[in-house]
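Hello forum,

I keep getting stuck at the same step: I have a sequence, I want structure tokens, and every attempt I make locally crashes halfway through. Rather than fight my setup again tonight, could one of you with a working pipeline run this one for me? It's a single chain of 307 residues.
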Amino acid sequence: MTQPPYAQIAQELRRRIQAGELAPGDRVPSTRAITQRWGVAMATATKALTALRQEGLVRAVPGVGTVVADIAPPVRSPRSTAEDPTVRTRVVRAAMALADAEGTTGLTMRRVAAELGIPTMSLYRHVANKEQLITLMVDAAFAGEPLPTRPPEGWRARLELSAAMQWRLYQAHPWLADALNLSRPLLVPHGMRHIEWALAALDDLGLDADTRMHAAVTIFGYVRGQAIDTETEARATQSSGITGEQWMDAQHDRMTALLAQGRLPHFASVADEAALSTTSLYEFGLTTLLDGLATRIRTAKPHGTVT
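Reply #2:
Ran it on my machine without issues. Output:
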């Protein structure tokens, strides 16, 4: 049976979307453009776009028109698998390589598809959208450096090891710290294992459950907070060709003039002796944090004590 005109038009536009010729965010032909190209009435053109909108393939944007939806439904053939782990792994690795080199701002499904040499829409069989892709990237980053099966002796050594591993991951993947959010945490199993590791390290030390959880999340958040500028610094170095240390050296004369005004006497008294770096700040803060936790542990009441 011959399809009605609106269905034929919708089928052609659907094919272009599924083939990646029209990517998420691209404008699709307007009703006026459809009437001119296919020689149909305005009502038929409207019906074709309505059919695509009901399928979730397009959406209306005020002031712009009708565009390809950001989240397109998966297109499956009888032999395709909705979540082929091998293809998904390739997608995640390609996205991580792009993010490591350029950050996540310009990371799009189209860019990842181009790196893999496949149509953009085919990615949606394996990853729902950019948000899910970044979640998978975060989990894969933590999975890349797993915690040891046999932890070192002592709670402090265990927490220092976990923190050091997290710090290395943030340096290896500059986008990683910014991808995390403690207010709305990503439920990534390999990242959550660091919280589990910290909780296990603090078990049986007299600390109550609330204190242990706060300590575990605080340490995780501290390391992430110290690394939050990693991506910004990486991009600044990449674009300017000047490292952070070189930039600070270039500010020497300006800093000297500022301190010579005498308005910051305490700052001036230590400026020449202090040697700050991202690593020294991280190490100092972690040591201070763990020293405070050690005090908590020493003063904790033993289990079962009645006050």
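The chain has 15 helices and two strands. If your local run keeps crashing, start a new thread with the error log.
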